[in-house]
Amino acid sequence: MTAVSAQTDPYRPQVWRIVEKQMETADTATLALEPKDRANAMPFEPGQFNMLYAFGGGEVPISISGDPRETGRIIHTIRAVGSVTRPLIAHERGALVGLRGPFGAGWPVEAARGKDLLIIAGGLGLAPLRPAILDALHRRSAFQRIVILYGAKDPDSLLFLGDIADWRGRPDVGFDVTVDRAGQDWHGNIGVILRLIKAAHFDPANAVAFICGPEVMMRLAADELMARDLPQDSIYVSLERNMKCAFARCGHCQFGPHFVCKDGPVFRLDRIRALLQTPEI
Amino acid sequence: MLSADQVKPGAQAVLSRADFDHLITVLQAEGYDVIGPTVDNGAVVYQEIDNAGALPEGVASRQAAGRYRLEKRADNALFGYIAGAQSWRPYLFQPSRTVWRAEKSGDELSFTEPEEPAPKMAFLGMRACELAAIELQDRVFMNGDAPDPDYAARRSGALFIAVNCGEAGETCFCVSMDTGPKVTRGHDLVLTELIAPDAHDFLVEIETEAGAEIARKLPLRAAEPQEVGRADAILAETAQSMGRALDTNGLKEILQDNQDAPQWGDVAERCLSCANCTLVCPTCFCNTTEDVTALDGESAERRQRWASCFNLDFSYLHGGPVRPSVEARYRQWMTHKLAHWIDQFGDSGCVGCGRCISWCPASIDITEEAAALRRHAEEADNGEN
Ligand SMILES: Cc1cc2nc3c(=O)[nH]c(=O)nc-3n(C[C@H](O)[C@H](O)[C@H](O)COP(=O)(O)OP(=O)(O)OC[C@H]3O[C@@H](n4cnc5c(N)ncnc54)[C@H](O)[C@@H]3O)c2cc1C
Ligand code: SF4
Ligand code: SF4
Ligand code: FES
């Protein structure tokens, strides 16, 4: 027998504590986490994700939705859809969870320096984009126009209401929101986000777009941007695939030759467009 | 007998069949679990063996698409079968293992890896394609970012005693994949079985110091030039008699550029999506994790086990799989193996061992499917010109 020390397995999570919990909508909560024992910060790039483990539930990939300058705590916004996400957000303040990360390649905010920055979010897709928005707004003068377009199912499912109020009120941000359906008390846009893209102000020769939402929505949004002459290599999307390891070793997240967990989740559109158009990749 | 200082990396020597038992005894005395070929349930499998009597003496294996059976050989060769039914993969990349255990009580949550010392294993009878497959799995499991500690521990303690193939199988195509039949790297010792009417010997070639340490304890004699010549001739003959061929020229692009070809639908009509091919392939690395909680609610563990891209839950997302059709799943398997592997890890993920052909209940042959796709691509090209 060779003596083998029980080496730390890259699958082993760190223990983090939920220090704040806020319900965003009926089924979505934003959790603030702090490391239980380590006081050190966790730097991350906008668009990166962590693997969150709920004891007794399991582990799933969740994007970081907080401010990249605030590394002492980590913010996640989670929609309860199944056997892991439900127990994750059922946790009360003070509860402990497992966390591995951060993983993946995020939004190249730097690529938009000196240009118009377009942020296009569908539903929960706003969560992984929020760090990029906060980052850009911290150094607002590094960019030309900042346009944020947000589509949601209905007014009740809008996330980050505080941010929305802030962005809407800023003269240096072009913010617009639309919902698929709404009651009488909604005075905003109703309809698909494509209409907002059609009407948006930006210079296609000098702009970068970040899109996150359901895959169909991202495809259509990208087509609409291209119809407005924004080149493919100025468009970035964030993909979602089943993930078990997050370090290119379980094979689950493969998208053509790419490991979404490592090469993505954010991809430049021209590098994956053909795959995106092929069914069942 | 050779003197101890003559037995060193680079040296060639001869071990007689009559002394073959010594090899296993020496390995055991050095603390190795000896894993070698033996006949079990009508197939040659790699299992722990106690003595040379367990080896498949005089056994031949015959394989064809969807078929595998054992026959008697005319001679008493110990390694006269084609590579084993299952590869060495389970011994390094375990089919199932506990990754960590979690304990929860009050305001505590802790994770610990099980302290299981890795077995010290000697693999006896490894073929060139199998060594090539391990080299590929090393790239997956020992990558710099996140090496798999269990794989790494098993791998680093293992001794590899290879055997040059004296015959090629009907489903073999290592020559096409440039992985065999001659053992050229990754091994500690390599044997070539030399059988003559009046003699039965093994040419032993020493590659590493770890191999030399074992060889020094064996009753070896110097190799005659004509014995080395015979070993070369056997390998040349094996290379000439491959049962299958796979044209890899431009194959990566053919696969990646023809994801919508009708051939995928054609193979899907035959494929049962049984996942056998992924189970027997020596390079398949996909795995999944399961988190299970004990009934007391205070302890849990994560288990890692082999997974297959043919299973529906493999690609599960939002209430459904990303690849519901068999067509998409076969396409994923074959394109990954023969094309995406090159982008991901620098080489094809196929070493040409032929197992997926022999063990496919639908007799699907990866070399034929690749050739069909090539014909389709060439026709499409001609149509355009
Ligand atoms: C890179 C990335 C970032 C993500 N960011 C967020 C986020 O910020 N907020 C959020 O609420 N959700 C996010 N998701 C989706 C989230 O991972 C899934 O909702 C979650 O895995 C569902 O798990 P479940 O066990 O609760 O659901 P079930 O329906 O019970 O799922 C069973 C299993 O299938 C897999 N699975 C199911 N749906 C998905 C999915 N959409 N993506 C990946 N695996 C899935 C998981 O392995 C899951 O454990 C992200 C996914 C990815 C890949
Ligand atoms: S794909 Fe088939 S022939 Fe190639 S290494 Fe795997 S099992 Fe062997
Ligand atoms: S190719 Fe053959 S072995 Fe592989 S999943 Fe299909 S039927 Fe099973
Ligand atoms: S999540 Fe395991 S390979 Fe990407």
UniProtKB/TrEMBL annotation, chain B:
The keyword Metal-binding applies. Residues 260-291, 338-369 form the 4Fe-4S ferredoxin-type domain. Keywords: Iron, Iron-sulfur, Metal-binding. This is Sulfite reductase subunit A. The keyword Metal-binding applies. One of its GO terms (molecular function) is metal ion binding. InterPro entries: 4Fe4S_Fe-S-bd, 4Fe4S_Fe_S_CS, Helical_ferredxn.
